[in-house]
Records
---
Amino acid sequence: MSNEEKLLDYLKRATSDLRDTRKRLADAQRREQEPIAIISMGCRYPGGVGSPEDLWQLVLDGVDTVRPLPTDRFWDLDGIYDPTPGATGKIYSNEGSFLDDAAGFDAELFRISPREAAEMDPQQRLLLETAWETLERAGIDPLSLKGSRTGVFAGVMYHDYGAGTSDGSLVSGRVAYTLGLEGPAITVDTACSSSLVALHTAIRALRAGDCPLALAGGVTVMATPETFVEFSRQRGLSPTGRCRAFADGSDGVGWGEGSGMLLLARLSDAQRLGYPILAVVRGSAVNQDGASNGISAPNGPSQRRVIRQALASAGLGTSDVDVVEAHGTGTTLGDPIEAQALLATYGQDRSEPLWLGSIKSNMGHTQAAAGVAGIIKMVMAIRHGVLPKTLHVDSPSSHVDWTAGSVELLTESRAWPAVERPRRAGVSSFGISGTNAHVIIEQAPSVEAVERSVVARPVPWLISGKTPDALSEQVSRLSAVEGVEPLDVAYTLATGRAAMEQRAVVVGSSLDELVAGLSGVAGVTAGAGKTAFLFTGQGAQQLGMGRELYERFPVFAEAWDAAGGSAAAWGSDQDVLNQTGNAQPALFAFEVALYRLLESWGVRPDFVAGHSVGEIAAAHIAGVLSLEDARALVSARGRLMQALPAGGAMVALQAAEDEVVLRPGVNIAAVNGPQSVVISGLEEAVLEVKAEFEALGRKTSRLKVSHAFHSALMDPMLDEFRAVVDGLSFAEPTLAVVATSAGGGAWSSAEYWVGHVREAVRFADAVVELSTQGVTRFVEVGPDAVLTGMAANSVEDAAFVATQRRGRGQERELVAGVAQAWALGVSVDWEAFFAGRDARRADLPTYAFQHQRFWINSVWTQGSDLGSAGLAAAEHPLLGAVVAAPEGDGVVLTGWLSTQTQAWLADHDVLGTVLLPGTAFVELAIQAGDHVGCDVVEELTLEAPLVLPERGGVAIQVVVGAAGDDGARPVSVYSRLDDSELPWTRHALGVLAVGAQVPVVELAEWPPAGASRVDIDGAYDQLLRRGYAYGPVFQGLKAVWRRGEEMFAEVALPEGAGAERFGLHPALLDSAMHGELLGDGETHLPFAWSGVTLHASGASALRVRMAPAGNDQHSLTVADLTGQPVLTVASLASRPVTPAQLSSAEPLFQLAWQPATTGSLVDSDLVVEHVASAEGDVLGGVRSVASVVLERIRAALSEDTRIAFVTRGAVSVSGEDVDLTVAPVWGSRAGRPGGEPWSFCLGGHRLRRLVPGPGAR
């Protein structure tokens, strides 16, 4: 190659590279400046605002949302208010703009336990619901984004709720975690500018390709009045709680709260994917005041700079923006500075004035949610072409030189100025730390309306909710829709809403029909389990079957043609179709075509089965036969049957199979149910059987058939049919199948299909087998509802769906069947279902959240001040604080129990009364022991029930006394209602000890060898009948086994129950005993525990062994799922209780003394021995007494009995002399052979001492 050629080649490559570089630079620049589409908005603000439409109506109507401080947040409203400014620690304004239901949250929807919900920062809860609504308003199923790179950008500035759950990162992280979003999750805290800075960050992430969708916004909930206190100190708080933005009468800021969220995408992506575009973000900027005149003081030059940066980002000039939604807090310092910055920028070089307003005049300064509130207001204003007025402006501020530029206050609402370009608005937010943000939004690009013609056809409206109440409210909301296309509603409900457990469907062709259908709709629970398709047999054929489906659905038409759809099916003579040579191919074609249509919509079975000829269609669907071979099989079968001599009869009988006595010429043709048999054979013999059953009053019916199928009359065709079948190819099924032919064998065997003609159809057996395989849903694929009715008589606890019914509209029945299957839990690809229908997203009501109140009480809120009260934090869900006793080394642990703040406690309902479970007393005793170094609850006797009130709560104290010589301590548990005037009630008394032993736990082999599994279906229904109305947290029993008198169980807490915060969660330990309660009997409650040792904490699932321990007591061994020890209980005694006992304030149980003489039995294996003093010298006396005691101990050990010694004078009770010959007996309990302590017992319950009887010292 010459130099000239080399040079030319180089120049070509350089030119090409330059073009590529320029293109990449241009693409990068376009990405950097690409507008961002706002495709959805959601919000909650004061004044009952629950949607952008509510917010728009509020500002349009000029509503002022200021009201008194909330009374439901445990604020000391009387103590904190002082109208005199300057009072230390007080507030001089007791008004603001507050959310109506800041404590309300649908925890169940988000699978968050009540306990966790109560401890969650309400800002997390509020933003979760707002994000859910925002996605739904875009027509996006929130759960469909799981695993996507959707980003979450949340502004938040308060971290003052409770302890440990107000970390700012959790606000965005909670949304991402709950919805499974895997894009950036970033929480922004720049105080009052947080939500606009979050929006700016989201825009940059979208343009950089970090995420294709982004949720951006902010949230503010004031959990404490600290901000009121601080701004009262600074004299910056408005006495009336109102922001008088830019008014001469401005007197300070008024606080508000709320939540706002935007769903964003790059404009090109939004247009490509068909998302609704409400507006676009043209530009944004963020900067800082830097070293200004004060960290919290506004800075005019910085505000001017951020505005110019945003305009440059958008490629716009100042006159290209029509209105600014200002920060406008109403302070005498901030508003003039902001106004001057606007006059110096937007106020210059324009022919029309810049209009200025602030939503803070309506709802106060919502702080981290303020910027996004301004965005939502301006988007709605752009869409409606109206500029709402700003409230409380007596006259423009005299501290502003309004002549310095062309800016005017919106003191009245007005139409948007007419412009020859898109409408635009700027929105400002300035943080107290100096971070400023400005965003410019623009009217959405115009979209040419595309005409469409919607043909009225049946559509399903699918409604679902997490609970029956949610479903009911969702139905009610939907009933109010007006002026919408039913097809669009159906499409949006199916593809833009999450499918939850409780479901309902209505099917119709018109809006009136569908709305009317909602009034009587019944909900069902989408159950677990598998789905079987049942293919109908001969007799279901009807004229015209499939014609409507053929015309409406191309998939059906193609499959019908390929399967050899019979002309007879669409003829005019039913008798012709009934000829078996026509009926069988027609049924085959119909069922294959119907299945292919269902399959195209994502409706697929786990199992298939068929009745007679329907089994051939099922075999083809399962891959056993190719379509060509299946057609050959069914054609030959029908043709050869048709060729047989006419005659014979078939009769359906209401009878069990074993009731039918066969005779020559009669065969069982089908067993369709427990009381449904078909006989076939010679006409005379068959009719004789028919007459016999009619004489018994049974129902009988002669089938309209030309031949006696599945009888010996079929034998003449079998050889020729076998020759046809031998020429076909069979494969192993690709789906799970259950055969119905009595001849047995596999579908992949040619001989099976020969016997299939002759042998009985054992349909009922097949249905039962399917049920045992886990099938809970049966869908019939055929032209009529035949098999569903028969199958329903064979199994219980299953659902049955027909996809066609004789004499009804075929499309409507199919749509109804598919919708019903979905309601029962069958998966459907609704995008495929609506494909080609030109369905569009409709604006529908969002999810009907079912709010419960979750707000931690005042004690928790002030937990950080325990030290100043002389207390230490107990760090336990049931206990708040611990304090040492002033004398001795005892301690008192205190707590506050309420079903509102610890909602799981309400799940322990016994005989209609909510009680603190006995296991909770054990947990309290264990925790108390941890604080004083005791590792065994040696005994704990429950004396009185602790009834938890429906409202309010109870204070509790766990009192631990001083240690004895052996380290043991008394422990007692007290409570009283949340009223300091009421007396304390003692509920439990016991002893804490030291010296826990490492147990031998043999639960590694699981299930245990030799144990038999117990059916626990309906276990909690059984327990309910016995008085135990356990709620979800206490329904932990998962499996039970028995081996003789031993009970083994597996128990687990529901997800999110917070097991890690307990030694052993009381609900989990309570569930460990439920297996022993199954069956009929009285209602029992734990009475006395002994020898309780916790070996590992925080378990959420357990293996349990419960065994008799004598005297109606049980021992309890609890391990984790690997078999490692968690808890052991030497003995547990329970006693029956009645509703009257639970409703009274009297103790349930008490200790009673039983007189005992030497050698008497006070229990089945406990012998009492009185120890007598010895005469003579002390040493001799000691030897004599010790010899007697040791001899009795040896005898007790050999006889496997327990022994209790009663002494006189062995210990000093009131300072009297001690009998030295008897005193050593008390020392004998310190040890025994093997190193185990002696066990002194009374009535079968371990006690630290045997208390002396009358006259003893």
Note: The chain is about 30% helix and 20% strand.
---
Amino acid sequence: MEQKVRFKMHKVKKNWVTIGVTALSMVTVAGGTLLADQQVQADEQNPANQSSDSSQDLLQETPATTNDVATTVAPTISADANTASVAIPVADATSTTTNATDRAAASASNVATVQTNSGQAAPSTNVQPAATDTSATATDTNTNTNTNASVTATDRVATTDRAATTDTASTEARTRSRRDLAETREANTNTATGIQWINGKQYYVNSDGSVRKNFVFEQDGKSYYFDAETGALATKSQDEFSTEPIKATVDFSSGNQLYKNDDKSLDQLDTFITADAWYRPKSILKDGKTWTASTEADKRPLLMVWWPDKSTQVNYLNYMQNQGLGAGSFSTNSSQESLDQAAKMVQTKIEERIAREGNTNWLRTSIDQFIKTQPGWNSSTENSSYDHLQRGQLLFNNSKGDTGNRTSHANSDYRLLNRTPTNQTGTRKYFKDNSIGGLEFLLANDIDNSNPAVQAEQLNWLHFMMNIGSIMANDPTANFDGLRVDAVDDVDADLLQIASDYFKAAYGVDKSEANAIKHLSYLEAWSYNDPYYNKDTKGAQLPIDNALRNALTNLLMRDKNTRMQLGDMTAFMNSSLNPRGANDKNGERMANYIFTRAHDTEAQTIIQRIIHARINPNVFGYNFTRDEIKKAFEIYNEDIDKAHKTYASYNLPSVYALMLTNKDSVTRVYYGDLYREDGHYMAKKTPYFDAIDTLLRARIKYVAGGQDMEVKKVGNDGLLTSVRYGKGANNRTDWGTSETRTQGMGVIMTNNYDFRLGSNETVTMNMGRAHRNQLYRPLLLTTKDGIKTYLNDSDVPSNLLKRTDRNGNLTFNANDIFGVENVQVSGYLGVWVPVGAKANQDARTQPSNRANSDGQVYKSSAALDSQVMYEAFSNFQAFADDQPELYMNRVLAKNTDLLKAWGITSVGLPPQYVSSKDGTFLDSTIDNGYAFDDRYDMALSQNNKYGSLEDLLNVLRALHKDGIQAIADWVPDQIYNLPGKEVVNATRVNGYGYHQAGYQIVDQAYVANTRTDGTDYQGKYGGAFLDELKAKYPSIFNRVQISNGKQLPTNEKITKWSAKYFNGTNILGRGINFVLRDDKTNQYFNTSANSQLLPTPLRDTGAITSTQVFQRRGQDVYFLRDNQAVKNEFVQDGNGNWYYFGADGKMTKGSQTINKKDYYFFDNGIQLRNALRRANNGYTYYYGLDGAMVKNAFVDFDDKRKQVRAFTTQGTMVVGNLHWSGHHFYFDRETGIQAKDRVVRTDDGKLHYYVAETGDMGRNVFATDSSTGKRYYFDADGNTVTGSRVIDGKTYYFNQDGSVGTAYSNRADSIIFENGKARYITPAGEIGRSIFVYNPATKAWNYFDKEGNRVTGRQYIDGHLYYFKEDGSQAKGEIIEENGIKYYYEPGSGILASGRYLQVGDDQWMYFKHDGSLAIGQVRADHGYLKYFDKNGIQVKGKTVVEDGKTYYYDAHSGALVTSSFAEIAPNQWSYFNTDGQALKGKWTINGKEYYFDENGIQYKGKAIKVGSRYKYYDENDGQPVTNRFAQIEPNVWAYFGADGYAVTGEQVINGQHLYFDQSGRQVKGAYVTVNGQRRYYDANTGEYVPGR
């Protein structure tokens, strides 16, 4: 876009200086000017004699009026077609056309041009300055310092780290007062050392060794010129002009007349003439010398002889000057005579080059490029903006205004806009969301789908597409089955009725569930209103459950901070067309489909983010290149493989686990979630492939029955469970059937990677009563490293199996469920299925053939739930190029068995249309099929991105062979730029078709690409099936359409597209004036015979003749024209040199001011042009292409924006700092070249970075100093930072000099302290996050968390528990006491020990339980054995333990509790321990034998015990009661134990002896006993009765 510069007068240090400000940046508003002030400052170094007076007088600037909103941007060097004209812009240039300032060096009436050598072009230059005018008047607004350059959208977009943002700059501009512009000058130092002798010649050498060329250096009153070729010192005192006279006779006007007003002689369009028109003149100046009658082949551009205004003519001449075809540089202050004379010289040079090259191809290219630079002929006047995917849109109007009836061919009775499902009648009907639908104008040529003829053609095309196999190959097995309707919210909703009517009539989808599912179709319908419209109209396509899609996307796929802020997981139950909470799940259901990512959604949007952030910050929308896409995917694919993602989506396995198990919704699987999106088709898998593959395969076997969802609160976290019970069970209390037991699936998940259960905390997932006391196994299980998949029962280790309790609950503890962040999961995901399903189990339900009674095509059902759709392509999959075997359709045809194994029932193929190549939007760059100009060309004319027509038919056959349906993509909203043009009456509108204030194109003639000629497939098949369809399906044609009230016609068959069938088009970069008007009458030119109006040169005549010569008279030189000395004129000799002849007619020398401009002439009179001059005063000046000193401008010296200099209003070259209008620049103090992509220590002593594109001071950006290799970050003020900073979510540490901490590895000095906090600096200079670091100072490992803080205490890291002491040292091989509980951390890994023993002494062991705590007391340890550990945690072995009065014994070898066994608890001391491990006490019968144990549980052996009133004696060996034998029960006391084991009493005869035992069984010896009244004595030794004693 062209820059328009205003000049403001300011008094700075007693000097008047002018500041160029883009006039069009200001908007007149109530009360004043929006941008009333701009701040301009410059550093300066004053020569010794310079006054330092700092007084300032400010002159208020005059406001200018435009329709554009002011947008402050960084100064931009703007160049086009080798023209490096520059300006200091404040804002985007607008559509207002302004005139250029004077670039020529003479008054308009006194310009002469002499060409002494017609074959020699003007010297080639590559720099053109912005010429200025030192006067500040009201007419300054009509200036233009860049008459032949354009600023593209890329130039005008300001990024956050490279230029001030619009809002900030605008606000500052309104509030700050203008500061003076201090002239910046080079130091007046002795530069004689710059002149050096090299190989016998003198050169001026810079400090870096480079040689200055085309440079004047003045010192001590002497002038030295270093030439433009080599830089060697050259003399400029000898004449270089020729004194030979030249006679020029030229007759242009008669020759340039139009040969004949017909199509052959003049390019015309619908009787209009456009800027790119060529015509046949009556004669051509053959070879640039002789006028010769033209032939039919001799066409020339109209712009060679005619221009709409003076400004455009000036721009043309300056443009041609830079093409080497010019006659000097000009401005709008140049005289019209001089411009016309120069135009003839340009025409002469054009004819010379045509003769040399033998064609005009180069000229067509050059003229086309010139046209693009002119605001009236490019997007500058189309209000290009962000309100449209292609920067703007135009509505076609019926003829009126200046176009009269000349655009009546584009008139329409329809163009009923915004007739979406929400607003089909023009009155809004649905209010689920706040819009009336999507944009009417989406892309390219917007089809008028309210036009009945168009609607009929859409039906015709739909029929062709669905029956492609039958029509093209007489093979119905190669037809499509279903339909995807693209961009539903951007088209007339009548199309939905037409499509539904067709499917009902042709396939009977409303007759039965089986018919409907056999032709499964769906809508790309984003509005929340659409499902309700679809239900009310009994549509034959499924709507999106967009509420649930948003919930899944926001709460699972975003980064953690975002998803935590957007709500909790109850949205998965409640935010849906079909709520799944306990109170809602049995309510009214609405059939729908669900997905989260697609070929565009969450795919190309991510690529766009990457390109904007990392590759091209100025990218507009989705208009990126294939190279940018390739670079973006390198970043994206790397990001996918990271746990902490910047761009890629999180938790895709979790998303699919929910979608694929949800009831009352059909899942659409996206190809790009299984395979990398950018490679060859199916070539490389994503990290999610195994998980999604397993879910799909398992879904066939297990997913059926009722569903319950709930979110369990665990502290502040949520844990979601979703359970399908299997066929026969709708609720968890249902008993189910025989099928139920091995069906069903449970999902348990969280979206929080910090989720933790307490050590004693559990959660349950109820699998339903039908699954009580049943063994379950994981299908998917989260680990710290990813997801483990177990497709088959045999894949699962036994220790992972779980059994439901009698209520059907599966119980999980902290070891089962824990949050992680890895490549696949950010949170937790577990999927569980019952053990025992047969390999061929199929839980799906077949659709019913029962008659449909209510006409509703789709109803939620088990059969519909059994469907899975597959969007089988990516926007970005690679082209097959010269490897046809890689075509998508071929590869897919070979893999339909895989789709069948996944349970895919319908495959959505990409649009099979041959792609448009116009490149105006992403679709026509990647050839994905959504951008096309012939809708019937389904690989008929050539292969498309996916293969040939035969490849398409074959993949359809292959899918059908495996029982899979094929879904076609119907794209009825737009057709891309068509080959034929036509002139329409157009108005610039917004996306909904409404004109907005500020849009300039209102009822203007505009050239649109809207015509076809009937020779394409549209011509062959357009409307061809309508009569047949009407005969077969009359109901379709009997319906009165809702939006237009008309029936579909069959009498208007569209075989040729034209504007009357379109609502409008995207802006095409042709501008407001591309259709040309007469500069005198302002009427459009007209080639019609009755109202002919042609450009003047095509009908004028005239001639010029003159003789010109240089003449020397002594020391003076004059220039004579027809023997008269010219005065006050610039003259060019045959070598391209320019001279000036003053008021006395003499050639001028030295420094001169002419017409208020400063020039410099060598001693031989040659004007200095395109050169720097270091004057005696120490300042450097630049003289531009026209020789005038450049003032108040940036100048690009290499046409690459890498050698840019700036010059003040006094013309002095800026060095050092320049602060202007909120921008900060720096210019090298030796060369004056602007610092770009450089780190510079500026005059304030600080380091600053200046960005590559604009040279503005870098803000919020990293940059590396190429001289030192140090990397810095420059903050919002452009200053370096120190210490730690969080930048783009990453924490970095910066040294005291501002450099990023570098050269660190895992050493002690990599750990620094900041504000009392320890930080680790990575080798890249970032604050280390989520990283272990070895610290040699403490000889221990430290860990730094996600925020970069060194952790202490217990930490959960990557699925493991660790402990860090107060100094951050990791505990390894240590017992740590936490809250009174001891834990042990492994010596090697530092991981919390669990379920393991630790030897702490000779045969001394401790045990750490599964929760890691030290075992104290009785614990069930390894293999389920009970063991005992004392108060110190030492295991008890070979000892008894008394607890609660009960005695236990732990084995001396294993330490296990002894149960149901005797144990020798001390030498010769035995006890028996029952099944509970308790020592028995008292009398017990064990294994049929009697034993007795004392109060301590010690077995009686060799002892008598009084049982009741009698004794028993237990054998000293086996411990059993003795019988029929004597035993000593006390010292010297004996007893006899009878057959019952008790001691006998009274008189007994034993072994023939008469003995006596007292009442307790003690034998009487040496004593008298009265027996039966008789006194008896028993022997003291034998105890035998002694009669008679």
Note: The first strand starts at residue 5 and ends at 12.
